[in-house]
Amino acid sequence: MSLALTAPEKQEHQPLAQLRLRHATLADAQAIAAIYNASLRTPPYQADGTTEADGARWLAEQMAQVRQLDAPPIAHYLGPMSLPMAANLIAVHLRAKRHMLVAELDGDVVGWMGSLGLHERPGLSTLFEIAYYVAPRVRGRGIGTRLVDHLIQNASEWGVDRLLAMVWSDNAASLSVLRRAGFDAWGALPGAITAFGKRRDMLLLGRVLPNVTG
Ligand SMILES: CC(C)(COP(=O)(O)OP(=O)(O)OC[C@H]1O[C@@H](n2cnc3c(N)ncnc32)[C@H](O)[C@@H]1OP(=O)(O)O)[C@@H](O)C(=O)NCCC(=O)NCCS
């Protein structure tokens, strides 16, 4: 398990002039669920031999388990997201006045970022735990980076002074986004994730923002 965080060199992405970032509304539920579920089917962990077929099989198993739950989890869990779950996730963000962003390209929602998590605990309200997802067809064009940057740029106005992301140690794309956004290694949960037949480490990456209020 490596916690070394060296910022990658700045890469120039294709211009995303048409990209629009905005807060999610309930009308985005379908797109949000679809992007999340596509992420489960297309894991970025193929370096270890995990294929898209492995992802689809694993997703089917997870779906069977979720169907048996009375109250499916709404966020930050490893399993498929149904339409009602996505709608609930958006509604929870709206009710809690948390920021859930979507990225729109040519009128289509192609990515999103939620910020529910640890900060729901008392005393942690200015720490946002972020999780973000980009449609496979538009990955690698800077959309993930733009979502994280947008939150950082608005952090002061939105009452955020610390960001936390929990990332699988072999999720190179997400680690690249976070390192470039100035996140540091805050910790690790060794072997905490079991998925696709393998145990994986969960890394905790964080960033203290300059607009600390207290
Ligand atoms: C992580 C994710 C959101 C990144 O979105 P994105 O729009 O592709 O992000 P960006 O284009 O801003 O940056 C991606 C970076 O990862 C790099 N990358 C992509 N795939 C990679 C891979 N398999 N190995 C190494 N680096 C990779 C890209 O080269 C790029 O880095 P660069 O700009 O230095 O070249 C997207 O890959 C995704 O949705 N993954 C599945 C869901 C997920 O893992 N979410 C994160 C949970 S914390």
TrEMBL record:
Domain of life (superkingdom): Bacteria
Gene3D superfamilies (alphabetical): 3.40.630.30
- UniProt-listed InterPro entries: Acyl_CoA_acyltransferase (IPR016181), GNAT_dom (IPR000182)
Which Enzyme Commission number(s) are listed? 2.3.1.-
The GO terms this record gives for MF are: acyltransferase activity
Task: Read off the CDD domains from this record.
Answer: NAT_SF
Give the keywords, sorted. Answer: Acyltransferase, Transferase
Query: Where would I find the N-acetyltransferase domain in this sequence?
Result: 19-203
Q: Give one Pfam hit by family name.
A: Acetyltransf_1
PROSITE patterns xrefs: GNAT
What's this protein's name?
GNAT family N-acetyltransferase
Task: Tell me the lineage of the source organism.
Answer: Bacteria, Pseudomonadati, Pseudomonadota, Betaproteobacteria, Burkholderiales
